[in-house]
Sequence to fold (79 residues):
Amino acid sequence: MTTRKTTKRSFEDDLRRLEQIVQSLEEGSVPLDKAVDLYDEGLTLSRACAERLRATELRIKKLSKDLEGQFRLTGLDDE
Fold:
């Protein structure tokens, strides 16, 4: 099983690596053991990217005050 370094990589770096893994697996030229390791790494990267996207979406949303003076959570496209 491949272990990832503990250094924090950017979303773009993880997405590029995930694309490389998908391409390698689609080509079908890697040995089975290597394919399983790549698949495992790809799942980990996919989950990390999805979590970063969710966290980013929450950061983009903002707390705003409506006409009645009540605060509500809205997205940037709700205005």
